[in-house]
Amino acid sequence: MDAKRNMAKEPQPSEGETKQMEGLGLESVIERAQGHDAEALGEIYRRYVRRVFGLCRYMLNSREGAEDATSEVFLKLQRSIESYDGSIPFPRWLLRVAGNQCIDALRRRQRGLKVFVEFEDGAAVIEAASSAPSPLGAVISTQERAQVRDTIARLPENYRVPLVLRYYGELSYDEIAQELGLERNYVAALIFRAKQELRRRLVHRSK
Questions:
Q1: Same topology between domain 2-110 and domain 122-206
Q2: 176 φ, ψ to 5°?
Q3: H or E element at residue 133
Q4: Three-class secondary structure of residue 132 per DSSP
């Protein structure tokens, strides 16, 4: 990936330094990274690149696009890690950065995130979303992971993006609403619909 190639331009740690870094707790690694320690930044990349790439792959439904987005995320991390204040867990903060990068990519692709359009029975769906138990956990527990990943990738974009931000990026409904520029209740409705559609497709595939 480009991000890895960019980091490769920095002085590389020795094997002993790498092992020492691997033994550090996340808080210590972040503190060193905020001091522009290249070894610490590389350690963060090593620990989280798979999760960031996975989120980008889900959201953009394109391996090439996900690679580009992942590169941009870690370049942004190098420039902005000082802004991380510990108020939320670091993985969640980093995945929020990744989610924002993917949303920007989708907006550039579509000249505006116009896939999020109102549907006729939104009020009923919002009411159901606030009271119905989530089927997602049960669905995933009974299906092969690869099949679930493939099915999520095939969901319409207006379902896929908020669903991935919620369950892979671990963002709250309020955070997703803020990132997408939508009302919270509408985000809840989209995610409810996304889970129902995911369940329907998985059941259909299993027949």
A1: no
A2: -65, -45
A3: none
A4: coil
Q: 122-206 is classed in which CATH architecture? A: Orthogonal Bundle (1.10)
User: Tokens 């892979």 correspond to what residue?
Assistant: 168
Question: CA-CA distance, 9 to 45, in Å (whole number)?
Answer: 14
Three-state secondary structure readout of 19-72: HHHHCCCHHHHHHHHHCCCHHHHHHHHHHHHHHHHHHHHHHHCCHHHHHHHHHH
- How far apart (Å, rounded) are the C-alpha atoms in residues 52 and 137? 21
pTM exceeds cut of 0.70: no
Q: Please, is 25 exposed, middle or buried when counting C-beta atoms within 10 Å of its C-beta (0-12, 13-18, 19+)?
A: exposed
Q: What dotted CATH number matches 2-110? A: 1.10.1740.10
Name the residue ranges covered by the structural domains of the chain: 2-110, 122-206
State the pLDDT at residue 8: 40
CA pair distance 129, 142, nearest whole angstrom: 22
**pLDDT band at residue 207, thresholds of 50, 70 and 90?**
low
Q: Are 45 and 5 in contact (CB under 8 A)?
A: no
